[in-house]
Amino acid sequence: QRTILSTLSMNDFEIVRQIGKGKYGHVYLAIYKASGYIVALKILLKQELQHEKLLKQLKREVEIQGNLDHPNILKLYGSFQDDNHIVMILEFAQYGTLYDFLKRSQRITEGRSARYIAQIVRALQFIHQKHIIHRDIKPENLLVGRNGEIKLADFGWATYAPDLSSTPLTTVCGTLDYLAPEMVRRLPYNENVDVWALGILCYELLVGVPPFEAIGFHETCRRIVCDNVNIPDHVSSEARNFILMVLQKIPFCRPSLEDILNHPWIRMHNSMTTP
Ligand SMILES: Clc1cnc2c(Nc3ccc(N4CCOCC4)cc3)nc(-c3cccnc3)cn12
After folding, report:
1. In the predicted model, what is the mean pLDDT of residues 210-239?
2. How many Cβ atoms sit within 10 Å of the Cβ of residue 41?
3. This prediction's pTM
4. pLDDT at residue 107 tops 90
5. Cα–Cα distance measured from residue 76 to residue 90, given in angstroms and rounded to the nearest whole number
6. Coil, strand or helix at 7
7. Least confident among 55-64, 102-111, 178-187
8. CA–centroid distance, residue 41 to ligand 1 (Å)
9. Strand partners, 30
């Protein structure tokens, strides 16, 4: 229902309460007065978006996420601005971020992890087909919907995958623990950085901490590039095999998203879903 966004303003919404703090702004639970529809408003203060790089990033976030319609991707209904704010109107995710969920429940079961991973893979298939790379997959950017489904959110770092005609991507971005080795080494990279981050996420869901966590930036970077993954004994052999298959240091040695969905560990926990 694409509303004529130019007419929207803050007083079309009733702010209920703050539900989260992002890097550059706060997220609020709000009600669209005209229909009573519950939404999340991501409100950014213009004066905090001083340098135009952030504005460019925000425009790209709205442009990219606004055109994605998938059950595992958080919907962006639209955006508007007034004198001091830029506001993004987002789908409200009933159960918050996976990060908070993990904090509350330490580790989660292998079954639930495998079901989350499968849903994120379907979201990644959807955006990679459009040559979009998310570049910042991590528990803080994954939200849990009303039926426990995962929603990929925060396309602030999303960009278009390079093709032969464009200059290679080398911007280092995302969150340190989730950076792919090729990013740490400032080598050109592509969609495979999202596959790597999926492996890091899977490890963190099962173990409770990311695999290359260390004290300090440099040691973490060294571990990402050089160290093998150390998987604790409580992790099943299928999950171990899955993590080792995904966390390949060399990008093109990583499995495709389709290979991931066909892995035994994913299949054994996602059998009832459609093939
Ligand atoms: Cl965008 C967007 C859409 N929906 C949300 C959302 N939803 C949400 C639901 C429920 C609870 N509560 C559940 C009961 O315990 C108290 C928290 C929080 C957030 N949170 C964030 C967010 C962002 C940053 C930090 N932390 C949360 C961003 N969101």
Report:
1. 97
2. 24
3. 0.92
4. no
5. 5
6. helix
7. 102-111
8. 11
9. 15, 39
In this structure, what token pair is assigned to residue 85? Answer: 């704010």
Length of the chain: 275
What amino acid is encoded at 86 in this protein?
I
Q: Would the pLDDT of 161 be above 90?
A: no
Q: Provide the mean pLDDT of the chain.
A: 91
Q: Is the pLDDT of residue 243 over 90?
A: yes
**Amino acid identity at 214:** A
CA distance 167 to 257: 25
248 neighbors 193 (Cβ within 8 angstroms): no
User: For 267, what's the count of Cα atoms within 13 Å in the CB-facing half-sphere?
Assistant: 8
Residue 21 CA to residue 256 CA, distance in Å, equals 34
* Ligand 1 binding pocket mutation candidate from 143, 146, 149 (most atoms within 8 A of CB): 143
Q: What is the pLDDT of residue 6?
A: 56
Which residues lie with the beta carbon below 6 Å from any ligand 1 atom?
Answer: 19-22, 27, 40, 42, 90, 92-97, 143, 153
In this structure, what token pair is assigned to residue 216? 């300090």
Catalytic member of 69, 82, 136, 233:
136
Known active-site residue 82:
no
* Residue 169 in this model has a pLDDT that exceeds 90: no
Kindly report the backbone phi and psi dihedral angles of residue 167, in degrees, each rounded to the nearest multiple of 5, phi listed first: -75, 145
Residue nearest ligand 1's atom 26 by CA = 20
Q: Take residue 123 and report the two structure tokens written for it.
A: 């979201």
